[in-house]
Amino acid sequence: MQGLIEFIEISLTGLGMGGLYALTGVAFVLIYKATRVINLAIGEMLMVGAYLFFGLAAGLALPWWLAILFALAGGGLLGLLLERAVIRPMLGENPISVFMVTIGLGSILVGLVELIWTADPRRLPQFLPDEPIFLGPVFVFPEPFWSFVIAAAVIGVFVLLFRYWRGGVALRATALDQGAAYAMGINVPRVYALAWMLAGMIAAGAGMLLGSIAGLSPALALFGLTVLVVVIVGGLDSVPGVLLAGILIGWIESLAGSYLGGEYEHLVTFALLLVVLLVRPWGLFGTPEVERL
Amino acid sequence: MSEPLLDIANIEVVYNRAVQVLRGLSLQVPAGEIVALLGSNGAGKSTTLKAVSNVLSLEDGELTAGRIDYAGQAVSARPPHQLVRDGMCHVMEGRRVFEELTVEENLVAAGYALTGRSDGGRVDFDLVYEYFPRLHERRRALAGYLSGGEQQMLAIGRALVGRPRLMLLDEPSLGLSPMLVEDIFTIIGRINAEQGVAMLLVEQNASLALALASYGYIMESGRVVIDGTPDKLMADDDVREFYLGMGEQGGEQRSYREVKHYKRRKRWLS
């Protein structure tokens, strides 16, 4: 019985992380679907979001909710800026060049953050409720619990937006066929900008949640590496795939970390990546003819 | 004659900075009329339409000479989505419906053509469903699951949503059964007559296109080789033989063995 309760507790913590993987994965897929750019700077965008929140809430002593709003806006702005200044001039270039540019972008963002806030680890101001949560006999850490709830809500809102909002239709149309989208009178460059902006906001939000669980340091950007595993396992161009893979990998990672030891967390994740790449290189739900790099 | 709605003057188009596809092509489309643009595969018909709707750059093509005016203004200065918003709708070859969107969502996406119009931006679904009742029945279905004919209806319906002044139609008969082709062409004729939409119709099926059009151009290797009213074109021996599939002497049938030599014979001496 005790073993079972422990298993459920570990699983629920894993789901908490899984929610964040799924959320960041959605940001990644949003950019990939709309603009066909593999954005390896997603982890760094997430980290910048967390630092923005830190700077506003701890540095400028803004109330936490205002700091969150500004940090989200800042994340969106960062996405817009990256798209306009760096990605758009690369349009039509070799996908590998664009992909390399995003790696460079990531390094620049880390450098900027270290210049401003140094590389020392910090503590994010508490904004999630911290009373322990008991589901019957099962204890759940409050931070993973609330970040899962928030991540799920945000994902839900976005799924509804994609489905029913006119701009969501434009986004999906552009993702499916750029040329035809132009022929519908859709301003395709603006859709690109929109995709990057939304992804920037989602990443910033995920960054704040992650920072409140794991603490704040530039190493937060490494989260992007696991997100890359998530999107490859789920399928680069599939939102449902990424949601499922995010939850799955969060769960597996947590199980491996608890039962095998912390050093196995990434071993298991990347082993899973290897298996998926061997068996279904396009991911669980991706489109098989997706261009592989 | 008043100024044409679309005026193409001596355009040249080069792909990849290497392949010249259009070599000094000129044509006009007057407001409210259907003009047919005919020619064999690779003559540059689709390229002409892409030049008009200013989407060449998406395929690494470039307008190197000449001028295209739509409604009195050069198209090159306007991005493709702006041209659509100005009332020029391009129904692309191969239909290009958004397969993972429903029929209705396809029409919603097409509603972006109405951005910035003075008459408000509401999508007139009923207008589309009136011409294509079949689309109304299938409005909740994913476009990818429609039949070829239904997809073509949707492609034309999407253009209709934008309440265009000029429609560029690229091979609406492609891959459809003869019955459906006839239906589609009837509706195209009705749209022209009832909505006053001018059309530049690219087709391989010359007899159908000429039956509908008020003027026709025939192009080969990137330039217009002969043009005129449908009557004049239908009476032309070369046109009859190569595009309408009728022999020179009173509709005599030719065997395919002879047609094999068309390469030698199919040169315009104009």
Give a structural overview.
The complex is a heterodimer of chains A (293) and B (270). Chain A is mainly alpha-helical and 293 residues long. Chain A has one domain. Chain A contains eleven helices and two strands, in the order H-H-H-H-E-E-H-H-H-H-H-H-H. Chain A has a two-stranded antiparallel sheet with strand order 1-2. In chain A, strand 1 and strand 2 form a beta hairpin. Chain A is globular and about 60 Å long. The model of chain A has no long low-confidence stretch (mean pLDDT 89). Chain B is of the alpha/beta class and 270 residues long. Chain B folds into two domains: 6-97 and 164-232, Rossmann fold; 236-270, no CATH class. Chain B has twelve helices and ten strands. Chain B has a six-stranded mixed beta sheet, with helices on both faces. Mean pLDDT of chain B is 87; it is low at 260-264. Chain A binds chain B through residues 92, 166, 169-170, 172-173, 176-188, and chain B through 53, 55, 58, 60, 79-81, 84-85, 89-92, 96-101, 105-106, 108-115, 158, 162.
Count of helical regions of chain A = 11
- What separation lies between the terminal Cα atoms of chain A? 48 Å
Principal-axes shape call of chain A = globular
Order of SSEs of chain B, N→C?
A: EEEHEEHEHHHHEHEHEEHHHH
Termini separation of chain B comes to: 26 Å
- Structurally, the number of domains of chain B stands at 2
Low-confidence stretches of chain A: none
Q: Give the beta-strand count of chain B.
A: 10
Radius of gyration of chain B (CA) equals 19 Å
Largest sheet of chain B: 6 strands, mixed
Q: Please, how many helices of chain B?
A: 12
The CATH homology group name of the largest domain in chain B: P-loop containing nucleotide triphosphate hydrolases
Structural class of chain B: alpha/beta
Give a summary of the structure in a few sentences.
By secondary structure, chain A is mostly helical. In chain A, 73% of the residues lie in helices and 2% in strands. The longest helix of chain A has 34 residues.
